[in-house]
TrEMBL record:
<keyword id="KW-0813">Transport</keyword>
<keyword id="KW-0408">Iron</keyword>
<keyword id="KW-1133">Transmembrane helix</keyword>
<keyword id="KW-0926">Vacuole</keyword>
<feature type="transmembrane region" description="Helical">
    <location>
        <begin position="204"/>
        <end position="223"/>
    </location>
</feature>
<feature type="transmembrane region" description="Helical">
    <location>
        <begin position="78"/>
        <end position="98"/>
    </location>
</feature>
<keyword id="KW-0472">Membrane</keyword>
<keyword id="KW-0406">Ion transport</keyword>
<dbReference type="Pfam" id="PF01988">
    <property type="entry name" value="VIT1"/>
</dbReference>
<comment type="function">
    <text>Vacuolar Fe(2+) uptake transporter.</text>
</comment>
<dbReference type="GO" id="GO:0140315">
    <property type="term" value="F:iron ion sequestering activity"/>
</dbReference>
<keyword id="KW-0410">Iron transport</keyword>
<dbReference type="GO" id="GO:0005381">
    <property type="term" value="F:iron ion transmembrane transporter activity"/>
</dbReference>
<keyword id="KW-0812">Transmembrane</keyword>
<dbReference type="GO" id="GO:0030026">
    <property type="term" value="P:intracellular manganese ion homeostasis"/>
</dbReference>
<feature type="transmembrane region" description="Helical">
    <location>
        <begin position="142"/>
        <end position="164"/>
    </location>
</feature>
<dbReference type="InterPro" id="IPR008217">
    <property type="entry name" value="Ccc1_fam"/>
</dbReference>
């Protein structure tokens, strides 16, 4: 009887069995509010757009600054430098927009044709078609983004030179402002591209200096030769 009191059906009194999963159901993981929605964000696509914008701004910065340095090599008039910089801004922004529009529209046509072939293979599944259409690139958006990015970079040398009348000081301030902007753009591009920041900044800075120096030197040489 003592043994029966101590044990019942082979289960010790000191042993308590607690069912962990009732009815074979697994416990549902607790999910914080907003986690599911944020996991659907394509951060890689966002980084690509941001990096393209940084590269476009860097292009506008270097090209317009080099153009203004070239004009400054042969003319001390501030109006000539500003007009050259403004013309470079407008021409470069239009060139970037048109080139990006043509490039992305070509990609759009290729992907649209691919969707039609896939739709035929999926028996004209409308749900499939709508989902694929949402992922198509937008040529107008790409063109506008490229033009704006180029214009933002091109405004740096223009703003740096617009209020300075002394020719030598103007060139020095122009180089300093462009150098600072190059370091910033190089750092942002490195963060977005997951590359070493110092190496990227140095590469972009040296490249910008070379572009301005070559443009300044060649223009000075041609201007002195009076060709």
């Amino acid at each position: 009887m003592a043994n029966l009191g101590a044990r019942t059906n082979g289960i010790s009194a000191n042993q308590v069995e607690i069912p962990m999963h009732g009815n074979g159901l697994e416990p549902k993981p607790i999910r914080a509010e907003g986690v599911e929605e944020s996991s659907n964000i394509d951060y890689s696509q966002r980084a690509q757009w941001l990096r393209a914008a940084v590269l476009g701004a860097n292009d506008g910065l270097v090209s317009v600054a080099s153009l203004m340095m070239g004009i400054g090599a042969i003319k001390e008039d501030i109006s000539a430098m500003l007009l050259a910089g403004f013309a470079g801004l407008v021409a470069g922004a239009c060139s970037m927009a048109i080139g990006e529009f043509v490039s992305v529209y070509t990609q759009y046509d290729i992907e649209k044709a691919q969707i039609k072939r896939q739709r035929a293979a999926n028996n004209n599944n409308n749900d499939f078609l709508e989902g694929e259409r949402e992922s198509l690139p937008n040529p107008f958006q790409a063109a506008l983004a490229s033009a704006l990015a180029f214009s933002v970079g091109a405004m740096v040398p223009l703003l740096a030179a617009v209020f300075i009348r002394d020719h030598k000081v103007r060139l020095g301030v122009l180089v300093a402002a462009v150098s600072l902007a190059l370091v910033v753009f190089g750092g942002v591009g490195a963060v977005l591209g997951k590359t070493p920041v110092r190496r990227s900044c140095a590469r972009v800075l040296i490249g910008g200096w070379m572009a301005m120096a070559i443009t300044f030197g060649l223009t000075k040489l041609i201007g002195s030769a009076q060709l």
